[in-house]
């Protein structure tokens, strides 16, 4: 047992603990807002229970042989796909999306676990037989692992979470050996989608594509295929846009200009920035944030929880939180580089990506840099499914670090 | 190499986030702090309590009772709230929507004043279903003693655009005095609003007080004490009940008004809160025009009371000697017109005193022609006719004193006749006066030329400190009239009461003077006037009674004035109704015994004739 603790990565543990404490403080603050503090759910206590469960699971994962994780990859993937299909039929609706499965007194989001399961499955697929993702067959098969849950989640619809799969795919494949030039060709159609809202940017991106293809002397087949794929994507964009739910369209429109509807949907972004900005350098003090305490800040225990930290602990607190995230992620990449097992390495990068993506999207949204997506902030936002998945992922990182010299 | 790409990407993205933190929390911190304060701190207006109104001796006339006004906040309110409120307070929803559109999104709009307590309770119980509704305490006037005081007190109402321009410190929806004393003394008795700041949550609910130095306590308005004696005002009200007209009594030594009554009047409590359209229509369509303040808002022909002005002009200008006698055959011929004296058989030969005592028209027709328009106009102006008295009431009518240029303008030069001038001398024709001007006039006479400006305000009392502030009274002297002229005129007026046309105003045990007037007018029966003062030797009270279309001044107004004066002296402990009863009984007994004597003499004569 003592041996085990010697092998634990304290940097990871410290940054995790810091973030959990910060999250608990913020939740404690939001749980005591308004007139009827007792009437609202006490998120603090519930989250505390989730953290205890998470810690047990995390240390369990840390403790088990790392080969068990490898072995569980495909079964877990199968189970999570099953639940993602199940949620279509028995899912609980929340805010216009069927995301939840009710199990007794608990409800959980299968999409949270699917992130980790998918990562494990892809890593195992790439690990078996040292597959080169630059080979089209390998690439397409690997991509399929992402695409299936992606499609199941996007139809819930949960745009934010489904984006995690897309975002996770790139660094994982890159880490597995995908060349930057190929990576570029994969990203290009998505850039085209974003760019083709304006015809000029569409043309510009197409020009970049052609120059790139010629410069890297790709085969004619690749050139022609990519060229037409990108044009098709550009043409498809308006169709895709029309396929978004009105609330999703609104979120993007309002992100672009929140002042158009300050009392409506833009309200969230404005209030979040006001709460965050009014914190100033040192913050208004624990449980002293007027925007939080008087509930001007919406969704303060989940989506906009970082604004609570920004308001009550100021720039100092916000930077501390950011630093803890940075430390945690930095350490994650380090672990990915030092572990000898390729599966472990790919999974580590995938975990870092998942956590980083959530962190950046959520904080970016809170400070008004990114549109409102509803992605929780790892370790800090209230929510059991997300917290447990994230802590299990930290458990995996700890495990891999412990076994870094093993193949 | 691959790990550096990842480290680099992570660092770059986190740097962007950190920069945005810096941007929001350091660079723009003050902007967002201000926005956060706007969010959560709300200014709550606290309405001041309006000053009470008391009579001269401290009898409470008007104070305040708690009341609540209903507001809607446009940005928070819903169509359902508007519908419910519309049903509740009986105002069309379209009208409420219109009001809401006019206001700013966050500015509460007053939709109803003085909401019933039942309705308010209902709203309080259902507040969660009525977003955007709120209420504020706003004291309303409560009338404890209002007999005959409606015109005097005036009404309150919501501030209008002109008043907003005049009082920049006030806001839309504020309550201000609209008429009469409430208007004139508005600045003093309104008080000033206070502001306190509260924390509100996102739903606008008050969650706590903010203690900052911007809190301003509301300052109550000052209490206003009037020169009015409420007992006399109420008594006058009873005397004038059922009549149209005015009764004014004034302290000749100060100008303080003791009674100021205009009849008919209205229930002031019904006009000072929320006015129901029913009551409003009823008042507007009343043929007796109860909203009209007859004391100073309308001009009347003064009739014979105005002969005093002609007499003073003639004497003071030396146009006639006091002993100048003229003959009254009962009619007078001017040009091709014959005008009649009120006494058909004529007064015979009279001097000026006799003409005043008997109010002889023929004497004054001739006198008018002798004086001429310019001198008449000069003396009318000298006694402040044709100009406002400046009393603390609103919409005062200056009356009309025609001049040569006036006639030239109206009729054309040379087109007007001497008959018009003769008419003016007896207070008929174009001349218009207000009962208040007549009161002021008789007071000047009683004071032998000293004018104490008529006023209603006696003092202001600060309700917090109790500090008293006497309201200034103004006095001037009418220059240029000889004392001997006053002697003669006043003596004539004494005789009017003592056996003349004003005999019914007579007091027993206290001497008084007066003048009656019976003014012809195009609206029906003559207006009955009486002006007078008492005691004759040492005047302290002046009175003017006008009964619109009442008939003769001596028959209708003089007894009212007499009754009022008696009450005045009675309250002072100087009048003895018992003595009056005895004197009247003695007179009646004498009359009866004379009649009996006469009867027996008659019988004697008949008997003796029969014997013959």
Question: What report would you give on this structure?
Answer:
The complex is a heterodimer of chains A (407) and B (612). Chain A has 407 residues and is mainly alpha-helical. Chain A has one domain. Chain A is built from 16 helices and 3 strands. A 3-stranded antiparallel beta sheet of chain A has the order 1-2-3. By secondary structure, chain B is α+β, with helices and mostly antiparallel strands. Among the domains of chain B are: 125 residues, 3-Layer(aba) Sandwich (Beta-lactamase), CATH 3.40.710; 28 residues. A 6-stranded mixed beta sheet of chain B has the order 7-3-2-12-20-21, with no helix packed on it. The mean pLDDT of chain B is 86. The chains are: A mainly alpha (407), B alpha+beta (612). At the A-B interface, helix 7, helix 12, helix 14 and helix 15 of A face helix 1 and helix 2 of B.
Give the overall shape of chain B.
Answer: elongated
**Whole-number count of domains of chain A:** 1
Distance between the termini of chain B: 168 Å
- Please give the order of strands in the largest beta sheet of chain B: 7-3-2-12-20-21
- Topology-level CATH name of the domain at 297-387 and 398-431 in chain B: Beta-lactamase
The first-level CATH class name of the domain at 297-387 and 398-431 in chain B? Alpha Beta
Element-level helix/strand string of chain A: HHHHEEEHHHHHHHHHHHH
How would you characterize the largest beta sheet of chain A?
A: 3 strands, antiparallel
Helix content of chain B: 40-55%
- The helical percent of chain A reads over 70%
Note the total helix count of chain B: 22
Radius of gyration of chain B: 34 Å
Model regions low in confidence, pLDDT < 50 over at least 5 residues of chain B: none
Quaternary state of the chains: heterodimer
Cα end-to-end separation of chain A: 23 Å
List unreliable stretches of 5+ residues of chain A.
34-40
What fraction of the residues of chain B are assigned to beta strands by DSSP? 15-25%
Distinct helical segment count of chain A: 16
């Amino acid at each position: 047992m003592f041996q085990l603790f010697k092998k634990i990565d304290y940097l990871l543990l410290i940054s995790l603990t810091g973030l959990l404490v910060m999250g608990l403080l913020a939740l404690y603050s939001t749980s005591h807002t308004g007139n009827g503090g007792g009437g609202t759910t006490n998120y603090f206590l519930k989250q505390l229970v989730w953290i205890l469960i998470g810690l047990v699971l995390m240390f369990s994962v840390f403790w088990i042989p790392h080969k068990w994780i490898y072995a569980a990859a495909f079964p877990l993937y199968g189970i999570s796909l099953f639940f993602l299909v199940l949620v279509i039929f028995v899912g609980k609706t929340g805010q216009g999306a069927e995301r939840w499965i009710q199990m007794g007194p608990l409800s959980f989001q299968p999409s949270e676990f699917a992130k980790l399961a998918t990562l494990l499955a892809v890593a195992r697929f790439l690990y078996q037989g040292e597959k080169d993702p630059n080979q089209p067959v390998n690439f397409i098969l690997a991509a399929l692992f992402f695409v299936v849950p992606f499609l199941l989640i996007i139809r819930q619809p949960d745009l934010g979470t489904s984006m995690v799969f897309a975002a996770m795919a790139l660094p994982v494949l890159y880490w597995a050996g995908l060349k930057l030039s190929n990576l570029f060709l994969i990203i290009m159609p998505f850039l085209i989608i974003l760019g083709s809202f304006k015809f000029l940017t569409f043309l510009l991106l197409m020009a970049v594509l052609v120059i790139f293809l010629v410069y890297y002397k790709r085969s004619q087949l690749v050139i022609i295929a990519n060229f037409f794929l990108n044009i098709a994507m550009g043409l498809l964009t308006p169709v895709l846009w029309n396929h978004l739910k009105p609330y999703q369209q609104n979120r993007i429109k309002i992100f672009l200009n929140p002042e158009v509807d300050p009392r409506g949907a833009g309200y969230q972004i404005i209030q979040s920035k006001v709460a965050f900005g009014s914190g100033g350098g040192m913050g208004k003090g624990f449980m002293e944030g007027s925007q939080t305490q008087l509930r001007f800040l919406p969704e303060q225990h989940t989506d906009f929880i970082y604004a609570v930290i920004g308001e009550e602990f100021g720039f100092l607190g916000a930077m501390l939180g950011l630093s803890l995230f940075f430390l945690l992620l930095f350490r994650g990449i380090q672990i990915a580089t030092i572990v000898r097992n390729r599966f472990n390495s790919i999974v580590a990068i995938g975990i870092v990506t998942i956590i980083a993506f959530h962190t950046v999207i959520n904080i970016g949204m809170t400070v008004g840099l990114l549109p409102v997506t509803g992605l929780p902030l790892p370790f800090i936002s209230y929510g059991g499914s997300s917290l447990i998945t994230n802590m299990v992922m930290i458990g995996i990182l700890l495990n891999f670090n412990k076994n870094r010299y093993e193949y | 190499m691959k790990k550096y790409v990842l480290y680099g990407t992570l660092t770059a993205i986190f740097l962007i986030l950190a920069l945005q933190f810096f941007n929001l929390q350091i660079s723009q911190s003050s902007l967002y702090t201000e926005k956060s304060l706007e969010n959560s701190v709300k200014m709550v207006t606290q309405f001041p309590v309006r000053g009470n109104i008391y009579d001269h001796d401290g009898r409470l006339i008007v104070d305040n009772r708690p009341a609540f006004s209903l507001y809607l906040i446009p940005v928070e309110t819903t169509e359902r709230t508007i519908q419910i409120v519309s049903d509740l307070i009986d105002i069309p929803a379209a009208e409420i929507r219109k009001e809401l559109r006019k206001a700013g999104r966050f500015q509460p709009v007053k939709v109803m004043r003085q909401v019933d307590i039942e309705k308010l309770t209902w709203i309080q119980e259902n507040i969660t279903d009525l977003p955007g509704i709120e209420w504020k305490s706003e004291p309303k006037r409560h009338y404890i003693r209002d007999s005959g005081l409606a015109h005097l007190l005036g009404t309150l109402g919501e501030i209008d655009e002109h008043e907003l321009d005049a009082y920049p410190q006030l806001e839309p929806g504020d309550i201000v005095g609209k008429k009469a004393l409430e208007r004139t003394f508005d600045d003093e008795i309104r008080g000033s609003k206070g502001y306190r700041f509260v924390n509100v949550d996102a739903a606008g609910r008050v969650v706590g007080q903010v203690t900052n130095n911007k809190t301003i306590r509301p300052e109550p308005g000052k209490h206003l004490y009037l020169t009015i004696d409420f007992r006399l005002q109420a008594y006058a009200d009873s005397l004038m009940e059922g009549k149209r007209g005015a009764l004014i009594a004034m302290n000749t030594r100060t100008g303080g008004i003791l009674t100021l009554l205009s009849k008919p009047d209205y229930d002031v409590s019904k006009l000072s809160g929320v006015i129901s359209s029913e009551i409003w229509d009823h008042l507007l369509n009343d043929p007796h025009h109860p909203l009209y303040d007859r004391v100073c808002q309308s001009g009347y022909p003064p009739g014979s009371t105005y002969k005093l002005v002609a007499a003073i002009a003639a004497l003071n200008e030396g146009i006639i000697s006091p002993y100048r006698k003229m003959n009254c055959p009962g009619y007078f011929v001017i040009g091709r017109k014959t005008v009649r004296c009120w006494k058909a058989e004529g007064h015979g030969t009279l001097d000026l005193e006799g003409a005043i005592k008997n109010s002889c028209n023929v004497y004054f027709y001739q006198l008018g022609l002798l004086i001429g328009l310019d001198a008449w106009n000069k003396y009318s102006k000298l006694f402040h006719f044709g100009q406002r008295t400046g009393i603390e009431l609103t919409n005062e009518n200056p009356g009309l004193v025609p001049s040569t240029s006036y006639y030239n303008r109206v009729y054309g030069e040379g087109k007007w006749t001497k008959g018009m001038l003769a008419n003016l001398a007896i207070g008929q024709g174009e001349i218009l006066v207000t009962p208040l001007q007549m009161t002021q006039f008789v007071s000047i006479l009683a004071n032998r030329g000293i004018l104490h400006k008529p006023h209603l305000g006696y003092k202001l009392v600060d309700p917090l400190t109790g500090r008293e502030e006497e309201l200034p009274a103004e006095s001037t002297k009418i220059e240029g009239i000889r004392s001997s002229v006053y002697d003669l005129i006043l003596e004539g007026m004494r005789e009017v009461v003592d056996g003349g046309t004003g005999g019914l105003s007579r007091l027993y045990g206290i001497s008084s003077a007066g003048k009656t007037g019976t003014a012809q007018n195009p609206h029906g029966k003559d207006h009955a006037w009486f002006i007078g003062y008492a005691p004759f030797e040492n005047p302290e009270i002046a009175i003017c009674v006008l009964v619109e279309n009442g008939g003769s001044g001596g028959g209708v107004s003089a007894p009212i004035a007499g009754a009022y004066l008696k009450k005045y002296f009675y309250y002072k402990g100087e009048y003895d109704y018992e003595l009056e009863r005895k004197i009247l009984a003695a007179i009646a007994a004498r009359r009866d015994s004379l009649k009996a004597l006469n009867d027996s003499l008659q019988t004697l004569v008949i008997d003796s004739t029969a014997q013959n």
